[in-house]
Write a structure and sequence with these properties.
Layout (H helix, E strand, L loop, with lengths): L1 E5 L4 H12 L3 E6 L7 H12 L4 E5 L8 H4 L3 E4 L13 H21 L8 E7 L22 H18 L4 E6 L2 E2 L8 H11 L3 E4 L5 E2 L2 E2 H13 L6 E5 L5 E2 H12 L5 E4 L14 H7 L7 H24 L1
Parallel strand pairs: 1-2, 1-4, 2-3, 4-5, 5-6, 6-11, 7-10, 8-13
Antiparallel strand pairs: 9-12
Length: 323
Amino acid sequence: MRVVVTGAAGFIGSQVTGALSGAGHEVLAVDAPRRSPTPVLARRTWDEVAARPGVTAVETDLAVDDLDPVAAADVVIHLAGRPGVRSSWGGGRAAAERDNVLATARLLAACARRPARLRPRVVVASSSSVYGSAPHRPNREDDPLDPASPYAVSKVEVERLARAAARDGLRTVLLRYFSVYGPRQRPDMAFHRFVEAALDGRPLPVFGDGRKSRSFTHVRDVVAATLAAAVEELPPGVALNVGHSEPVTVRAAIGVLAEVLGVRPEIRREAPVAGDAALTWADTGRARELLGWTARVDLAAGLADQIAWHRALRRQEAGAVVA
């Protein structure tokens, strides 16, 4: 199977690319690492992705470049975009519009231009942020959407574009990811900041009082759901929640992290983030029914995995400095 992965230098995209190439698929990895908020990290990951057997890596800006070659595939897994609720306010609003909405519109249009029998299936990454805060029960895919940040608004528009493309004959599926964590997590994300602070012996920076709850979902589970969505025959335009079914407060998650590390961390409270949901909670019944998927990695095991990655990265960086 020939698969295109956009955002292949990213946290999730790099691991989806690795899983596909490891399974023997022909993979076209697409990204623009120079536009990443963390270009040095993106470049390093991009070089690792490009070196994998069976992977062809092409630097492409989805918002301006010719996308007809990108659309020539059996499946397009569209993970590229501008992430982050916090960074989408102010000047970040235009970046979210460009890299999420415009890029997706152009990619879907390129896929739709293919002859009908050659059009790829398109798996599109969305976010739990489209729901806003969950109503004290798990969010189901048919719940009303209530975006509370420019980032979330951009993802709602991405979903609208994908559903419109489905009505026009393109086989699209939307995956609403919930609070993904694990190895290669971006530096701006909560567990990355917590682990680095704890390993340095610094206070852990927590936005607000730590009472917000999340369906924290390990990246290995997210990769499994994404690959399943790439091969299963699904209703065009369907949305699927990809999240752990048990929400955990940030405070409780820090407690798990502290237990895994064997430390008693100090907390530094910071101002709450505008648009940050009080509760995210995934109803995954539809993903279980249509994909046979459910999240399997519990938080303690998932955090141990992420901590091991941080420590390995530190050893690697220390070795590079010595050399």
